[in-house]
Amino acid sequence: MSAYRITLLLVVGAIFSTPGTAESERSAVLDDVLVEALRDEMDRSLRELQLENESKPYFISYSVTEVSSVDATYVLGAHTQSNATSNRFLTVGLRVGSPNLDNSNYLSGSDRLSDIGSYEVGIRHRLPLSNDYYELRREIWLATDAAYKKAIGEFTGKSAALASRRVSQRPKDFSSEDQFVYTSPIKHSVSGLEEVSAIAKGLSATFGAYPPLLNSSTRVTSIATKRLYIDSGENFNRYESGICSAISQASIQTPSGTLIPLSTSTYARDCFEFRDITTLSSEAAGMAASLLTLQNADMLDFYEGPVLFEGPAAAQFFGQALVGRLGATPKGVAEDTTGFGIGAMLIEAATDNPFVDRLNTMVFPPFLSVVNDPTITEHNNSPLLGSYVVDEEGMPARRTELIKNGMLKRLLTTRAPTDEFKQTTGSARGLGGPRPGNLFIDSVDGVSMDELRSTLMGIVEESGQEFALLVRQFMSVDDIPFADSESVTWPLMALVGDETRSLPTAIAYKVFPDGREVPVLPLVVADFSDRIYRKIVAASDQRWKRDLYLAETAIPEHGLQTSKPGASAEQKAAFQAFVSIVSPALIFDEVTFKSANIVERPVPVYSPPVPVAR
């Protein structure tokens, strides 16, 4: 045992035997045990880990994520379930070969189709919560060994695939970056079950005043995460974050049997911000009232014409339809399982981003610009949950100008270089590629909402149409009833075909020249192409913020199931990562919508019982 370790263990013993020791001091010392175990195993692996006639690792990274969560679900003020969990995970990133050619960005024939577009290297492994040095070393050793064996197989397959295609020129596989060391000064702790239960109980009781609603519930979740990152390039960071979410869901059934779900979601860094639930109750009541208006909504089989995306709808649309376009990743290398190279080419084509070929061309109208800036923490005194300091590769977050006056100038990158971009923008955030943190859509000549409405009606008059379409809210993954196998079918089917890139509308209206608004049943954007962004003709001077799950922005690439929130520790960790989008309201002079594929059920035989508000 090293002298340092003996000293450390003595210090640990002294601290835990000393009354009144601060919890932060204990945590820091325990973290030092973990850091030492990681460093020692990394040093040993770099020196000794090698299969006969195979390469040694040239780069190793360890990322340890510790997630504590508490959640409670209530229905009409009655408790239905609650959970409290703590878990710790180790992600091992291991590269063999060299920065010019290594094992990353390779898809073998045994990989799942959902892995297409994944640029992660290594594996994920569960670690014990206790800080026993030798047990940690054992688990880190097992995980590193598994990652190394996987890397050797990937490197061999990738080298063979490239040789068979005689690829001579390609970008490096791993960029060289400046060292970054960071320790977060902010600490986060999970809220107590009593606190989250009180919030959930109060919010769920709101729906007692709306007897026609079905399946109403409120789930409040508090998550605290500690992340430790260390790699062989001497990058090191400790980072803590916290999320408290209050999600209320309900649905309404139309006379024809159509079941329409809707939710309202509020997020904060700490549940303390939810102690006054008056505002949250008001939002839940507003959602319930919106659902009631949809009970007798019109059905639109097809619509083509001007559309106003108002309030959070524009931010939601960009989050689901644009965010995936804003990252540059190297072309994937796939194993040829057919012997003719066709399957490999099809798989590799699935990773292509059409925006890469449109650099320095106009992709937006000239009055709009788009900037990613994860370093900004608030917008109009409201926290931006997409803010972060360091990405998953240990690289610092930074401001990146993406679209300037309509022209695409830059794309987000990780440490996987492309032909166009050689360095990272600090945007490695999971999901197999770069993702923004805070995305700002700016307009140089925004107008008031009244002027925007007048512009919309002017387009209606010029085109000779009877009405325009107003979209106030798109569905989010919180709206989708994953637990109901029948109801979940239609949002999935709505994403099939016609290159649809967003979930259906949740709140949409026909808007007539006399000002009337008639609600319509859910619609989906049909026949989507990137030309749709050039059809933006006006923007408001007011902007709205929307926090979206990071996974929700990957729906077009990975499908709805990838974005399904769940109860597992892994999913909870993934679903506290956000993209915040700040956007004005926007008018598109022409968008094509079609009716969403909605499942119809028999309506109840008689009216519901009237619940008693608690």
Describe the structure.
Strands 10, 12, 15, 16, 17, 18, 19, 20, 21, 22 and 23 form an eleven-stranded mixed β-sheet that branches. The protein has eleven helices and 23 strands. With 614 residues, the protein is α+β, with helices and mostly antiparallel strands. Helix 1 runs antiparallel to helix 2. It starts with a helix and ends in a 19-residue tail after the last strand. The chain has helices at residues 3-17, 23-48, 133-164, 193-204, 278-294, 313-321, 342-349, 449-463, 489-494, 555-558, 569-574; strands spanning 57-75, 78-98, 101-102, 106-107, 123-127, 181-183, 214-231, 236-253, 259-268, 302-309, 333-334, 368-372, 378-379, 382-383, 400-404, 407-408, 438-443, 468-474, 505-511, 517-520, 523-525, 536-549, 578-595.
The geometry reads as: globular
Average residue pLDDT: 84
Number of helices: 11
β-strand number: 23
**Major beta sheet summary:** 11 strands, mixed
Strand content: 25-35%
- Class of secondary structure makeup: alpha+beta
Overall radius of gyration: 26 Å
The amount of helix comes to: 10-25%
The N- and C-terminal alpha carbons lie at a distance of: 61 Å
Low-confidence stretches: 1-30, 112-119
